[in-house]
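Student: I would love a firmer grasp of how sequence relates to backbone shape in proteins. I am handing you a single protein, as its sequence and its fold in token form. I am told such tokens are a discrete way to write the fold. I hope you can help me see how the letters and the tokens relate. Take your time, and here it is.
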Amino acid sequence: MATVLRPDNAAQVRDAVAWAVSEETPFEVLGGGSKRDIGRPGNASHTLDLSTLRGITLYEAEELVLSAGPGTPIAEVNAALAERQQELAFEPPDYGPLLGQDEGAGTLGGVIAANLAGPRRIKSGAARDHFLGFEAVSGRGEAFKSGGRVVKNVTGYDLCKVMAGSWGTLGALTQVTVKVLPAAQKLRTVLVFGCDGAQATAAMTLALNTPYDVSAAAWLPDEIAVNSTTGYVRDSGGSVTAIRIEGPGPSVEYRCAALRKLLGGFGQTEELHGHNSANFWREVRDVRYFASGGDPRVVWKISVPPQAGASLAAGLCDELEGDAFLDWGGGLVWLATPATDGGHEAIRAAVALCGGHATVIRAPAELRAAIPVFQPLDPGLAQLSQRLKESFDPRRVLNPGRMQAGD
């Protein structure tokens, strides 16, 4: 009979995993469960639920460091940081609504385990770049820790880089420490109307190569822009290219004016201020355009060189009758396709031509069991991945098979 174990502390996590090892029975490891449907369907007999390991245990605003249990909701972390005008600079997305779940269910441990980041990825990096240290229990049932409370920690191996993006297959986190940063005083977005994908990429590239410190750049074609809840975007009547500027008030005003002048040759420009700008980038971050309850399409997250994004998106939309928009200055393609097989062969072939990787973010369980959900590894990386798995979880008791069949 399947059971759900909810340990209250790190010692109980260690005991639970030790029991799983002794019984040779695997666990599905989760926190809030908001990303439970990303990855291959699990074949675990039991669930190790870390949601009760929650709460901020250390927050030193002056030192820009925060520690919390892995089950701590991102919303709780964001609220605590906002009181001190600080933030998680990697802008963790909330895929709950995209996956048919409630908004705000994501946890700090889940975001780190999945190595997720929002539109500010092009400036601030991914979650792993802000991951300072952790405590965890390996698949051997052994407690271990790595990193510290500062960025320049050079003792031993940097296991934070290994754990981030491992999707709970190498260890069950029991404590997470991250770097936080001051939040911007002002937020504005320059909009350019009417560009096709190639023109938008040129405009975003131009903006990103200026000294104006752009923190996000995205493009919505007209069929997606019309679904925005931001008035200027929804009512534009065409495509929208968006360039975000953040910082001190006078500086933001100057840089926005300079960008509007610079980008005026691409089309008519407009400007979103604080509330509307934040709403727009939240939509982009959380892929809300594909999150309506009746949308059954398979959703892919495709990372490619920025100059290849627009042409890859256009080709796949034509071939697979899908919709797509661009983030990360053209380097991230979000694609929704009605193809019954998810269009995986066409997508893998297109990615192979330009270099990059593609991940299925939303699909029925039977499809996720039939096709590679994560980008297939080349032989060298596959061998390294297997060696890591053997080191951390030789009995395959932590999320077996979630990332690749046979793991």
About this structure: The chain has 14 helices and 18 strands. The longest strand covers residues 171-179. Confidence is low (pLDDT under 50) at residues 151-155. The domain at 186-286 is CATH 3.30.70.2190 (Alpha-Beta Plaits).
